[in-house]
Amino acid sequence: MDEHTRGEEALTNFTDDQKVYTTPNGTQLHGDSLELLEGLEDESVDLIVTSPPFALQRKKAYGNEDQEAYVDWLAQFGEAAKRVLKPTGSLVIDIGNAYRKGSPTRALYPYRVLLKFVDELEYHLAEEFFWYNPAKLPSPLEWVNKRRIRVKDAVNTIWWFSKTEWPQADVNKVLLPYSENMERLLKDPEKYYKTTLRPSEHAISKHFGNNNGGSIPPNLLHVPNTESNSNYLRLCRELSIKSHPARFPAKLPEFFIQFLTKPGDVVVDIFSGSNTAGMVAEQLGRKWYSFELSHDYAALSIMRFLPSMPPETAHKLYQKALQETVALPDEARHLSQAALDAAEAGLDIALEEREAANQAWGAAADQTHDSKSFDSSEHAEKTLALAKERRVAAEKEVKKAKQALTTAQAASAALDAFYAPETVVPNGDTSTEVE
Ligand SMILES: C[S@@+](CC[C@H](N)C(=O)[O-])C[C@H]1O[C@@H](n2cnc3c(N)ncnc32)[C@H](O)[C@@H]1O
Fold first, then answer.
1. pLDDT tens figures, 225-263
2. Does residue 301's CB lie within 6 angstroms of at least one atom of ligand 1?
3. Where are the domains of the chain?
4. Rounded mean pLDDT of 284-303?
5. What are the φ and ψ backbone dihedral angles of 131, each rounded to 5 degrees?
6. Contact 77 CB / ligand 1 (< 6 Å)
7. From 208, 249, 326, 350, which residue has the greatest number of CB atoms within 10 Å?
8. What number does the ligand 1 atom closest to the CA of 297 have?
9. Could you count the other beta carbons within 10 Å of the beta carbon of residue 19?
10. Of the listed 33, 44, 51, 274, which one is catalytic?
11. How far, in Å, is the centroid of ligand 1 from the Cα of 361?
């Protein structure tokens, strides 16, 4: 094991071999989370937000025994997670639902997980959330589409567990924009509200006219799982690499990170996949650790941290991450600078060639003008035609080189923006609000 890393909020103990890449705020590791969790100090983590492999993907059968095995398997992680959570810390688990094999009745493992974590591991259920994903496809086809005896399953259960009854949480960080009606009411509360009793006998008072900066979100999170324009997917597409098949949308970890942590706090994803949570934590100025069993998924997730990078350059870093730890943003900046230098040199060469082509064309034009005999004028015409071609080709090269330079400059600027100093967690305890 490496020597401990001090001076940061979390005391960690990971080997270089486990580290896939590092960023100013975080580290992606590969390996079994049960082992990797041992690398984190007791009570050092503010939030674990994660989406485990579902029973559905782990086993092809969903009998009660399999469900129990799944719940016991997940509980080991729950136990290990509890040790590293601060007393104010939270564990947020997104669990998909499923039907029992061959039956139009539901598997109960999300609820078994809930009961096991509360009854046996002694977590508190701070609140249950439901992630409504309107983009979810109808399934199983047999019950939903063919026989039409079940409706479309469009929610995942998300258990927000806490170590104590008083986890850190601030709803003000996740307020939603007010509705148009509410905006109107806020402009002129007297006009819209009289202190009155609703049918439920709840009094509606003038306090409803207070502007609190937004409305309190419900525990139904409406987040479509459509992320086709992310940098990760762009690079996977351009490099013809298969992306992680079960990603959650960035808005999901973003909600819980904003709600349950402050800038500078420590966020961990123990089943990180394509490292959606780490990327969000990085941008929100939280320290993060992401654990992923598959070395390949872990290395590929580096694409999330290479905004606007050309695919060939990103591929180099992905390959390197499969061999040794990549230090971001330095290594990306290094390649990005090399690409900028090459683009600048390319433009210089193209400009020189255009200058030479222009001169050759000028000389050829003069020659055509001056040639007296038929033979010399035919020769001069040919030279002029060739010079023209050279001029057109040189102009094209200049255009290409300028485009390459613009692309390289944009990639370099995107890198600078992504790793802007205000999103970097300062060493030590102090941290500045970035939102
Ligand atoms: C549902 S995916 C997580 C996807 C992730 N939320 C994202 O947005 O990309 C679950 C991940 O857990 C990983 N996994 C399974 N067992 C693990 C273990 N014991 N330790 C660490 N990761 C594990 C799988 O390889 C898979 O990538």
1. 877 668 899 999 999 999 999 899 999 999 999 999 999
2. no
3. 16-175+218-327, 177-215, 333-418
4. 96
5. -95, 110
6. no
7. 326
8. 27
9. 21
10. 51
11. 63
Give the tokens for residue 294: 């598959």
- Ligand 1 in contact with 293 (CB < 6 A)? yes
Q: Is 241 in the pocket of ligand 1 (CB under 6 A)?
A: no
Specify whether 228 is catalytic.
no
Residue 342 reports pLDDT greater than 70: yes
**String of b and e for 338-371 (b: at least 16 CB within 10 Å)?**
ebbeebeebbeebeebbeebeebbeebeebbeeb
User: Of these residues, 52, 167, 249, 307, which one is catalytic?
Assistant: 52
Known catalytic residue: 52?
Answer: yes
What token pair was written down for 288?
């993060």
CB distance 154 to ligand 1 below 6 Å? no
Q: Which residues of 27-57 are buried (b: 16+ CB within 10 A; e: fewer)?
A: bbbbbebeebbebbeeebbbbbbbbbebbbe
At 413, is the pLDDT very low, low, confident or very high (cuts 50, 70, 90)? Answer: very high
94 catalytic? Reply is: yes
Which CATH code fits 16-175+218-327? Answer: 3.40.50.150
Reference 154, options 174, 177, 138; nearest CA is 138
